[in-house]
Write a structure and sequence with these properties.
The complex is a heterodimer of chains A (185) and B (405).
Chain A lengths: L1 H57 L6 H16 L3 H22 L3 H5 L1 H36 L3 H7 L13 H4 L8
Helix pairs in contact in A: 1-2, 1-5, 2-3
Chain B lengths: L1 H68 L2 E3 L6 H14 L6 E5 L6 E4 L7 E5 H6 L2 H16 L2 H40 L2 H48 L2 H13 L25 H4 L6 H9 L7 H12 L7 H5 L19 H15 L3 E4 L5 E4 L7 E3 L6 E3 L3
Parallel strand pairs in B: 2-4
Antiparallel strand pairs in B: 1-2, 3-4, 5-6, 7-8
Helix pairs in contact in B: 1-5, 1-6, 2-4, 4-6, 4-7, 5-6, 7-9, 9-10
The chains are: A mainly alpha (185), B alpha+beta (405).
Amino acid sequence: MWPLIIVGGIILLVIMSLVGIFNALVRLRNQVDNAWSQIDVQLKRRHDLIPNLVETAKGYMQHERGTFESITKARSEAMGARTVDQASKAEGMLSDALSKFMLVVENYPDLKANQNFLSLQEELTSTENKIAFARQGYNDQVLFYNNKIQMFPSNVVAGMFNFTKREFFEIENAAEREVPKVSFS
Amino acid sequence: MWEQIRVNKRNSVLLLGTMALALAGLGFVMGLAFGGPEGGFIGLIIATAVWLVLMLVSFAAGDQILLASSKAVPVTHEVHPQLFNVVEEMKIAANLPKMPKVYIINEASPNAFATGRSPETASVAVTAGLLAKLNRDELQGVIAHEMSHIVNRDILFVTLAGVMLGSIVLLSQVFLRGMLYGGMGSSRRYSSRSSSNQGGGQIVMVVIALIAAILAPIMAQLLYFALSRRREYLADAGAVRLTRYPEGLASALEKIAGDRTPLEAANKVTAPMYISLPFKGRKAAHLHSTHPPIEERIRILRNMSRGASFKDYSDAYSQTVGRASVIPAGEAKQAEPVELRQASAEGKRETGQRKQMRDVGDIMRKVSGFAFLTCACGIKMKVPPNFKGDQVKCPRCGRISSVHG
């Protein structure tokens, strides 16, 4: 009688710990997916903010047509992107155009005194940060998840139920790689 | 980050267990002193009952009680968009399941704290003074510090430990008062009923109970402080990990340390929750403070020049303090490359003293429901919430503007 109970107990313990590991893996995978969708939400929010910002700033900055054009162009490219590769390139371009715009704004004190513009600027700064932090958070989650499915004993469960490794997400930032071009046209 | 949470949970259980034992022992000894051999168990039961009630209350509404006693007001995005945005940024960076509730405390002294039972029910409270004095990067550092407390489950620990400490202090206070005013009478009554040799034991018990009643709260407090200091370092390390910008938190701490305005709403129990201890310029604060000296925290942060990982913080800590690190070993070994970032454009903005004072006033008025109107001539008018009329006259140009709309 006793050996049966002991063997049964051990089997029950193993099953319970397997269930625990499986649930932990599922939770981690969901967190990775959730972190990914966070990035999407913030990118979309940035696209929504830009028309308002351009509208408000246009009246004050007649001489910066080139800046506005590059922002609008990058925005429509980013919104029309089909693949992840295209999207990360276009979003990188948009980031560059926006940071250039923010630098130019410093030359227009009237615009900087406009309450409406100030609140738009705060929203845009925050959205830029949120994109960066969402990416950071996503990569952190991927690290936890990948560690978990590679380490013993969870790697056994991961192998049984086909949990696969995830890739890190890097936004292509043209400004960080290219030498700045100076033009006098 | 996982290991940190595990270590924290173990320490919490350890601390709460020790405190529960101390509480039970205190109840037992007091019962013995008051009512003889059978009294010990009655004392034990009373102590347990007090603890259970306080525990249930603090689990159900501990955060609400703490927020209310700090006079924190819940705010929306409109009241202070930047604060809201920064909290949301850090929520995203920390991967919290839910946006914490945001509160503002109407005080000029810069400070902040987080509370709640779990990351799902967390709240962050900052003072109006903090909002006016810090720039965006610094505010981000402070909020990231509070987020780390939420992620590490420190908020539950502080709430529970506070309750434990509170009940131990309460019990020993009741006992000491009882001894002073009525206790002696009751024990004399008891000893007259019993034989004389039992009366001798009674006096010994009373002495032991007295010593226990005096020592228990002090011991409990010391233990609580010892573990809280570590949490502050860990939260600083976590904040840098989230923002990738140690200078933000460092200069925020510098501004907070340099401010001499006392925080009116803080008391002995709520004090350890704040990012910096609210009582300034007291000598005793150095002896058994829940927080490490703020200058040391700043120096550690400024010594982080290579990266923003836990390992980098741990290295900077040993370099600054000269002792082994406070970061759990497994965490410190992970040499993940985490790059530092540059100050944001708005991070460089500095505001003058007068503007800061005006900002504090504006934030406080906004929190208490004032309406802000801008007249066509450019003057800004602040209309109190109890203002009855629909229109106000501009004090400079005399134009009439509508309050609603």
